[in-house]
Amino acid sequence: MAAQFDINELHWLLDIVQSIDVGVVVLDRDYRIEVWNSFMENHSGLSSAEAAQRSLFELFPEIDQDWFSRKLETAVLLGTRAFTIWEQRPYLIRFNSYQPITGLADAMYQNVTIMPLRNPRGEADHVCLIIYDVTGIALNKRQLEAANLQLREQAHRDGMTGLLNRRYWEQSLEREFARYQRYETPASLVMFDIDNFKPINDNHGHQTGDEVIREAARVIREHARETDYAGRYGGEEFVLLLPDTSLQGAAQLAERLRQAMERLIVEHLEQRVSFTISLGVAQFSEEMSSAFDLVAAADSALYQSKQAGRNRTTLHTSDDT
Fold it and tell me: Which CATH class, in words, describes the domain spanning 2-142?
């Protein structure tokens, strides 16, 4: 009677293993498959009969055999469960993802439990793998991380132009100044504003004036390198911090910017507006005691460009201090 009860229990257990929505695989010590439940059948396209006594590594060559063997053998040696999580490895066996949000992930993200199975003699002669589909969890986390990153990025950006806002740009300037003090690496600053911007607003309207600012920002982005810090300093005034750049290198870039702005025609609300910019360029020097001395030097050079008739670039030199 007891034996019959045990047999019934075994049947119930097998029914449960087949019906649960996780992968259950039992391997012998040579990594041959002995149990392959319906979850594994559905996602692999292999029936339990087709998988039986086949090597896991033969059926799924994408598995890193050295890594997985070390993981499994350590679990057997210690007699404890081992785990793999999707953050470290997206999957053990590559299955296609059939989640409702498919399209964000081609493959199923998986967490895996590796569990040694002992025979009546206490020997771990089999190992059970339990494979969990965590695609939904993984994608939600990835989307949340991407959203948080976007929020952090937006917090650093000027809403109108997409350039760095003044606060974040100034923090970047201070970091670059600290790098200059430590390593004596050159860095230069181009500062400019739009000439006669108030008449543009007065004659064409503030919406057109805003479009001029956006177009000026677009030109800056086109000329800036990935390592440069382009920012809107306020109103129609812009800054471009150039790490690892000498005064002469910055002057060349400033002239390219000036010429590009001069050629630009902004079309908005059936109006065509052209404009010019005045620029000041300065480089970190030993005489500077703070990052903002560089801003003051570039601003002084910019003022000279304005005084000399606008639409020109002026370099700040040590004689100007």
Answer: alpha beta
